[in-house]
Amino acid sequence: MKKLNKNINVFKGFVDAHKSTAVLLLCSLGIAGCGDALTPKPFVFDMTRINQDGSVNDGKDYATKPWACVQDNQSGLIWEVKTIEAGLQNIDNTYSWYDSDQMTNGGWAGKVNGGVCSGSACDTESYIKTFNAKKLCGYADWYLPSRYELNTIVDTSVFYPGPTLPSAYFPESKAGSYWTDTTFKTRRASAWVWRFDHGSDYVEEKSAALKVRLTRPAAKPVAK
Questions:
Q1: Does the N-terminal peptide bond of residue 66 adopt cis geometry, omega within 30 degrees of 0?
Q2: Are 107 and 113 in contact (CB under 8 A)?
Q3: What is the pTM of this model?
Q4: How far apart are CA 98 and CA 100, in angstroms?
Q5: Three-state SS sequence of 120-151
Q6: Is 23 found in the same domain as 56?
Q7: How far apart are CA 123 and CA 125, in angstroms?
Q8: Mean pLDDT of the chain
């Protein structure tokens, strides 16, 4: 009998859970008698704009006083800010995925110089090397973000066609696809990509020509 009662209780919990789900769905449609409608709040970004010399930018006018980097005060990551000027950091530059290090390339190095860009050879390894020589915001340890790190700057409150980035901090953004360093485990010739038109990730061949936005860990909180 105890076993039977246990099964009944499990079934009752299953039914109650589905009843709750049905009520939530109806309430989200504004059905009378549900109380306040469920309105999910968009993620609130807490970021600091940083100048090339490492000082804080007030963010009042990017056109006349652009900032070079953005620090995410929640994830602790510092992000590259692209430019519209021709050259190394141009927002339209594209790169193939390439990593010559067998310890980090997931078993497949990718393709050398397979993108369309200026300022460096057009693959991720070459871009990172050239970029670190520039020491943006005073740092020389920039790297290609992981699939999970790049997800931290996706603004889910922005709908298609995007760009699904917080524009108050990334005013140069375009709705393109950006490489991560994360190789797709079941096909090593591919890597994970975030697309900033839908704000979703997918898998692409490493030979494809896509955009890049580098990151680095914050050494310490930037004083506001």
A1: no
A2: no
A3: 0.79
A4: 7
A5: CCCEHHHHHHHHHHHCHHHCCCCECCCHHHHH
A6: no
A7: 6
A8: 84
